[in-house]
Amino acid sequence: MELQLNMGGLSSFLAVPTDVVDKYLSVASGIYIKVLLAVLRANRVDTAQIAHKLSIPESDVQEAVRFWIQNGIFTESAAKEPQKQERKPKVVSTAQSLTPEEIADRIEKNADIRFLFSAAESIVGTLLTSTQQRTLIYIHEALGLPADVILMAVEYCVSIGKGNFGYIQKLCAGWADRGVNTHALAEETIREQTLRRTKERQIQELLGLKDRPLTPEQQRYISNWTEKLGYDRELIQMAYERTLNAINKLSLPYMNSILNSWHEKGVRTPEDVAIKDARPSARSGVSGSGWAPSYDIEELERRGLNVPKFD
Description:
The structure is a single chain. The protein has helices at residues 18-24, 30-42, 47-54, 58-70, 100-109, 111-124, 130-141, 147-159, 165-177, 183-206, 216-228, 233-247, 252-264, 270-278, 297-302. It is 59% helix and 0% strand. By secondary structure, the chain is mainly α. The termini are far apart.
């Protein structure tokens, strides 16, 4: 398709070296291109000002400038760039310490990396920084995950509001440790994690904690109830209501003791709770009524929980 462009309405133009288009347009990251245009427009390098204008870290601007210097687009005196005075032999670097030149070389020679970067930018909705590029290369090369699995992890993290690349790397490291290295295994893992998060949100809402993130301790309690003990929302709600009736406030340790006690006694359904409640118990502190709590009062007291007595 050909388009006839009419630029008569533009008041000024910016000259870009042809080498940028011919040699580096396909290999330079979007950040590098933006920095190049900003430098050409200002006709000087002010990394702090450019970082502010582009809303990116100044370190990324400095890295982009070095990239264009190394490839001969910009020049700088030896006094201002002492590292150019001495050429040291290149050494093989780890993925997390790749230079901009090495990243560009990966993009040019490795179709998987090109696809990974392009698709990841579409998912996160922004151009990747060099740090983010290194993270993806590290996951691909050091952790050994294929590009499609990495992209599934990126998409999942973004969908749950945790698109930070540090979190993505941590998630992928866990997958690699567990051998989640195929599309099918990643799909199953995401399904399980989505189900787990759904249960967690339901319990969070039940407990009136939905307006703030759960603390690690709260997450451990909920994980114990839903995963280790295998209880659904109905049993957890019953324990919650009994906690409020007993101490008139939410206490996760108190609820945890009730649910652990039920689990030890083989309680699996609301009907099991009713049967336990109907059995008189000498330890309940109640006589003649036929009612006994379905949790062990002495056990709760041993755990330091103040349980009201009924006389």
